[in-house]
Design a protein that fits this description.
This protein has helices at residues 3-27, 30-37, 46-72, 80-88, 91-108, 135-154. Helix 3 (46-72) packs antiparallel against helix 4 (80-88). It has one domain (3-154). By secondary structure, the chain is an all-alpha fold. The radius of gyration is 21 Å and the shape is elongated. The chain is built from six helices and no strands.
Length: 155
């Protein structure tokens, strides 16, 4: 892999992680959560919940695979830091997704505390989810990309 193609690959990879984040945001949007879990006071749809869970796990696995592929790549030394910075863009989404799963488990544990044979019971579950960007990481990526491209132009 040439240094030029490695830069192109890192840029394409960065666009791919943005697509992954958009998929996560779609499957965890308030609209999708309402579709799966129902409006307050209404039952959810087990099939949609299962489908959403499978899609989310697939997206999460894709994010992990993406980062592993980048970190295991052997680009030319001149662009290795650029590859590392690109792969680091998966850190926030992965961490925040794990925190979301922990919150989800905690919220769903409420179900085990309910006396289902008592009068009608409603359980409110709140599953907010936000993926935050890392402005400093983006700045470092842009600076490193500029450094690499300038170095390649100088030959």
């Amino acid at each position: 892999m040439s240094a030029e193609s490695a830069v192109d690959h890192a840029e394409s990879a960065l666009h791919y992680i943005i697509d992954i984040v958009e998929q996560i945001n779609h499957w965890l949007s308030p609209q999708m959560q309402e579709l799966a879990f129902g409006r307050p006071g209404s039952s959810g749809d087990a099939a949609v919940i299962e489908h959403t869970a499978h899609r989310l796990l697939g997206v999460y696995e894709g994010c992990m695979d993406w980062a592993i592929d980048l970190r295991s790549a052997r680009p030319p030394a001149a662009v290795s830091r650029l590859f590392q910075l690109t792969a680091d863009h998966a850190n926030n989404p992965v961490r925040e997704f794990r925190e979301f799963v922990e919150l989800t488990v905690s919220e769903f544990d409420k179900f085990s505390e309910v006396d289902w044979y008592s009068q009608e019971t409603n359980i409110e579950v709140s599953l907010p989810f936000t993926i935050t960007g890392d402005a400093e990481l983006s700045r470092q990526f842009a600076a490193e990309r500029g450094r690499v491209l300038a170095s390649l132009r100088r030959g």
